Amino acid sequence: MTISVRNYTLADYEALLTIQKEAFPPPFPEELWWSKDQIRSHIETFPEGAMIAEIDGEPAGSATALMILFDGKPHTWDEVADEGYIARSHNRKGDSLYGIDVCVRPEFRGKGVAKALYEARKSLVEKLKLTRFMAGCRIPGYHKHADRLSPQDYMVEVRNGRIDDLVLSFMIRQGMTPVQVMENYLDDEESKDCAVIVEWKRRQS
Fold this sequence. Notes:
The structure is a single chain. This protein is an alpha+beta fold. It has helices at 13-23, 36-45, 77-81, 113-128, 151-159, 168-173, and strands spanning 3-7, 50-55, 58-68, 96-104, 132-138, 177-182, 195-201. It has a 7-stranded mixed β-sheet with strand order 1-2-3-4-5-7-6, sandwiched between helices. The protein is globular, with a radius of gyration of 16 Å.
């Protein structure tokens, strides 16, 4: 089994749509899958951040990122992702690579696809000499603890290994560090609309 990661093109749209449909099946709203116009915008705006992972030539996962100048200010997914188009939010003079999505087809989960995509993003940070790779991370386990923990306290509990969160704990295992909570980040009942900003910093020479 060989995992390869390359930049996607518009010719990959049907493969990308298959990945989205299988990774986010109903009742996930299909209008939230990437449209062809959004994919075109990713490629035209920042082709380096548009990635597809394949296993032995079969599309297995994908990821999209843009560059921003990170200032730590509160923001939503729609704001940082330009509602999925990235054209107005991408900053060629930015210092950070910001991941706005990653998805893996169910049949390929547990085979290292997501890890390969994260490693490719870290390599892009190195290539572009950026400060960090970062993302807004869902915390789908938070709703089970929201009656006794603030989202900040939950982040600390997960970071310290006292609570296992399906997404945030995975991100930590990829070498990402939780930095701060963003409230009202995304309509997400399990996460109580919160996300945790996580980052991986490039070693400065």
